[in-house]
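Question (not urgent): is this output format expected?
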Amino acid sequence: MSLPQELDKKLREHYGFYEEILNKIPAEVIVADTEYRYLFVNPSAVPDPHLREWMIGKTNEEFCKYAGRPDKIAKARRHVFRRVLRTRQMIEFGEETRDEHGVFQHYLQKVYPVLDDAGEVQWVIIYALRITNKEEYEEIVRRSEKRYRDLFNYSQALICTHDLQGRLISINPEISRVLGYSEDEMIGVKIQDFIPPEHKLKFDQEYLQQIRTSQTAVSGVFCVLNKKGEKIYLLYKNYRMEEIGIDPYVIGFSQDITERIVMEQELRLAQQLADETSRAKESFLAHMSHEIRTPMNGIMGIASLLGKTNLDSQQQYYLKLMQEAAGSLVVIVNDILDLEKIVAGKLQLEKIDFKIVDKIATAIQSFLHKAEEKDLGLVFQNKIPAAKVVRGDPYRLGQVLNNILSNALKFTEKGNITITSDITEQNEDWLVVEIMVRDTGIGISRDRIRTIFEPFEQADATISRKYGGTGLGLSICKNLVEMQNGELLVQSEEGKGSAFTIRIPYQLSLEVMQENEINQVIDYKSLGHKKILVAEDVELNQYLARHILESWNVEVKIASNGKEALEQVQAEYFDCILMDVQMPEMDGIEATQHIRKLSDPLKANIPIIALTANALKGDSEKYIAAGMNDYLAKPFDEPRLFRVIARNLVEQELDDVNNNSPLKNQISMSPVNSRLYDLSMVQSVSGGDEGFIKKMVALFIETVPQNMDELSKAAASGNWEQVGKTAHKLKSTVDSMGIKSIRQEIRTVEANAKQLQSLEEIPSLVEKIGAVIAECIGQLKAEIINQG
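Got this back:
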């Protein structure tokens, strides 16, 4: 009894040993009987132990149905199983199924029959390996090979391989198409056989000899003959390749450039014809420009003399139209003549000393009136020292600036035009001046910006009809700048505006130039005895306006707010009202609306001119809508104040005075020395009265600290409405005293407070403004008040 038990134990141990091995094999192992019923399934085939237990005794079809496998898999397995039983040979086949995640998996199935001593099938072992990665790799290789074959076969480039003697090894179909030879006609043939006789030596020396020794690509152009004997020019770039076990060979890539070569030959002929035509055109323009200018100068001279005679209003109007038309024609003729001189190389540049800042400022000043008429802001931000003297051609710089500024004003309907100037490079002898003119106008489309500097070109054909002009100006400007070894650049976005940048190198001058103010004479007493009401809440501005107006023999009354202005108008008659827009109790707009509703028609229709520190289109429209006749931007000087009053006093015929009034304006510049103030504007209206200047300074010292205290408290408490009002009040005062270092800061504070944006920046800006004003007051006390 003990022996059979010991044998049984050993048998069980052996069985457990072999079963453990089968369970640990990293492959799917299944044993089935001859009816394809499962006798054994290892965990690699079915990880779920309960499912494995269920499978024992079940057929393949029952398992596939239970597992949701397609019928075709069960049928394919049964078909292979029967073949194994019939042939008694192992059969190998591939199978593709989805795993539990729905991802296709590839398996290699091996079905092996186990035979008994009689040679009959006793059971069948099914062995499966997952070969998904191998299949995927082979598929990638197949696809990669196909891509390279497709690239080779369908590329429009001419691709070939050849040995170091030039014998062709392979060609792609594009070579056959271009040259007209079949693949069989070219393989094994030397490239030299397709080269024209006159090019063979060059091909051997410049290509074959180089490619045999070169470690990099060899490129160039060579000529071949197609099957019809026609010359084909190929641009090539070829590489010598070396691989272990085979002879070196060359991979060649080329492109058919025959059309380009032919076109270049035609272009050379066309260029010769164009040059001859251009010379004929230049000669014609030169003669015609001079022929037109001569009689036009006579016409304008006679018109000028005619203007000095006694003319009635209608004759004066006709004369004005004639002079404007003649002036426009002269501008066009001068542009044409300048262009002709530039092309002919006959334009001479001056070499004289001048103050660069003065020249820029003068050019800007001539456009201030037009900017005001269009309600555009015109801002000059200068970083060049005011005393900087250079040697060059100031007239041509002014010509360029005038043209670019004129275009900016012409093509801008709202917003601002900002002019910035700076020195970008400097050494002991030279400096480079950069001037940028940025507008918020109609802009230039991307497809037209490339031709904007071409003669007779404009950004759009409709521009000439709407805005006028010949399209010559920018072409001349670019040529003038480049003649001075500079550059003229443009950046633009259609609908948002343009920025033109001028960069010109100038020689530094050691000369110190003296101020040379040219004072044009205006008869300020030509207004006659008028009575003007000034509605202004800032005492400094009240005093300034009174002094100017009384020097013209004008009677002046002062109102400190809109309510007082309304009361005075109701009490007495005035010829004109200068109305500040922002005032306490009642602002200028509300006061104007009340005045326009007065029952007395003389009072209701009195000319009202808005005094404002703003110069934007939206504000001016608001003033006009409120009933105001005109507006004057602060800080104002005497000529501009005279012009706007004269324009609105309809009883007087003051057209000549208006037209001849000089135009000045305070230009915002960065400080270039330690003095924080500039009393130029105050001095210009003082008429040499030192007492007036000291009174203005004293009023500034007395009133501005109070305003500054109001501003600081409002900013600290977050009262942004009050911040905006106080900053607006300070703005004109700061500008009048020429405190240019905080000109932009005071405007930023006002704008941000009113628009409730970037409020976190306001306290630091207010602190800076307060510090500068405090230092400025100290300078004024030391240099003006205490000196008296």
